[in-house]
Design brief:
Blueprint lengths: L2 H6 L8 E2 L10 H17 L1 H7 L1 H15 L6 E4 L2 H9 L9 E5 L4 H14 L2 E5 L9 H7 L4 E7 L11 H11 L3 E4 L11 H4 L3 E5 L11 E5 L17 E3 L5 E3 L13 H17 L1 H20 L4 E3 L10 E5 L4 H10 L2 E2 L1 E2 L6 H7 L5 E3 L7 H17 L2
Parallel strand pairs: 1-13, 3-4, 3-5, 5-6, 6-7
Antiparallel strand pairs: 2-8, 7-8, 9-10, 11-12, 12-15, 14-15
Helix pairs in contact: 2-3, 2-10, 4-10, 11-14
The structure holds pyridoxal-5'-phosphate.
Pfam family, one: Aminotran_5
GO molecular function, one term: transaminase activity
Cofactor: pyridoxal 5'-phosphate
Length: 393
């Protein structure tokens, strides 16, 4: 990877140390250009006319996303974020009293709320699979818990709250053997390292455009295995999802398009497409190796600082690094970094309710480098945190 060239192609790297790729990755010039060009075309000739002219590239977006995750173009639906993509899959499952939803402690906040809403509505039950000693989802416990009552296994691949990578392939092996649908929230993992639906064996996968994929805000997608469609009854319909058959009713569109909406932001779609193509061109293996190595570099240096602890769980960890400075509120650490031009966020207790209740460590400072960051930038962040820690001792 030519890091200098990649940074040159990323305007946001000029004046800031951007360590918030788990929040929103920086757009490349190419992606920005794809979006502004389309907006200008819409302004010049009309929105519908611009979409008609760019139809081939818009259609190609589905194929490029399919390549990214190892699925088929007709298994992709586009959304305005990951949550709506996830809702489209989850709320399309028919739950009955006594059905069980198995999930993990790292599950994303909105998913947890949805599980409980559906449990209250239908009499289904939410069961949280415990972690193993390393802090990842305990696959032996999952294998024990999975039974004929299990209607869904829903897992966050990488949580919003730390560097854990849940053992998705092993989870997929168990769900397949049991014949239970597996919904993988891959919002933090797609674009960060290779995620392949065939290797994992999940049935539904959701992701967002703006995080490690470096696409625009307000984009996301759902992948649904074709064979899973027959078990899903889309929870809403509209003219973008189905064809009117007269008095007889309607027929769902083929494949995953039945989950989509007619209207969408085409500048967003084309920006997402540009970001996906860029990730494919760079190679997810290479992206993953570098992002993970930068995460490990940062974690090691923070752990070496007196008064600083990192809190990333699991035996496989990624580019997301979470840390705490003894006796200093997390918001103050984040503010000190912001004053030095270092973009980070803090974890929010309500975004990972089970993890928050179990560990009691949130909020933490969350630093999330990506392949275009440099070791020198990480050193700068470590220096700022080191100074905060020294001042508090
Ligand atoms: C950010 C995040 C989401 C939500 O994605 P949106 O695009 O904001 O809807 C879901 N799951 C995880 C694990 C996340 O980190």
């Amino acid at each position: 990877m030519d890091i200098d060239a990649l940074r040159e192609d990323t305007p946001g790297t000029a004046d800031r140390v951007h360590l918030n790729n788990a929040g929103a990755g920086l757009l490349s010039r190419r992606t920005l250009k794809a979006m502004t060009t389309h907006l200008e075309l819409e302004a010049a000739i009309g929105g519908y006319e611009a979409a008609d002219r760019e139809r081939e590239r818009i259609d190609a977006t589905y194929a490029n996303i399919a390549r990214l995750v190892g699925g088929r173009p007709d298994e992709i639906a586009l959304f305005d974020n990951s949550t709506h993509a996830w809702n489209a899959a989850f709320y399309s499952i028919a739950f009955a009293p006594g059905d069980r939803i198995l999930t993990g402690r790292a599950e994303y906040g909105s998913n947890v709320l949805a599980y409980f809403q559906v449990a209250q509505r239908t009499g289904a039950e939410v069961v949280v699979v415990p972690d193993d000693a390393s802090g990842q989802l305990d696959t032996a416990a999952l294998a024990d818990l999975i039974d004929e009552r299990t209607k869904l296994v829903g897992v966050s691949h990488v949580p919003t709250s730390g560097g854990l990578v849940n053992p998705a392939v092993e989870i997929g092996r168990i769900t397949r053997a049991a014949g239970v649908p597996f919904l993988l929230d891959a919002t933090q993992s797609v674009g960060q390292f290779p995620v392949d639906v065939t290797e994992i064996g999940c049935d539904m996968l959701t992701a967002t455009g703006r995080k490690f994929l470096r696409g625009p805000r307000g984009t996301g997608f759902l992948w649904v295995r074709s064979e899973a469609l027959e078990h899903l009854d889309p929870f809403v319909t509209e003219i973008g999802a189905a064809t009117w058959d007269g008095e007889r009713g309607f027929t769902w569109h083929d494949g995953a398009r039945r989950f989509g909406t007619w209207e969408m932001s085409y500048s967003g779609v084309l920006g997402l497409d540009a970001a996906v193509r860029q990730a494919l061109a760079l190679g997810l293996d290479e992206i993953g190796q570098r992002a993970t190595a930068l995460g490990a570099y940062l974690r090691d240096r923070l752990d070496a600082l007196p008064g600083v602890t990192t809190h990333d769980l699991g035996s496989t960890r990624c580019a997301i690094v979470t840390a705490k400075v003894a006796a200093v509120p997390t918001s103050e650490v984040a503010a000190a970094l912001a004053r030095q031009g270092v973009n980070v966020t803090t974890t929010f207790p309500e975004q990972t309710q089970f993890d928050t209740e179990h560990r009691g460590v949130h909020p933490l400072v969350r630093l999330s480098p990506h392949y275009y960051n440099t070791e020198a930038e990480l050193d700068r962040a470590v220096e700022v945190i080191g100074a905060v820690a020294r001042a508090a001792r």
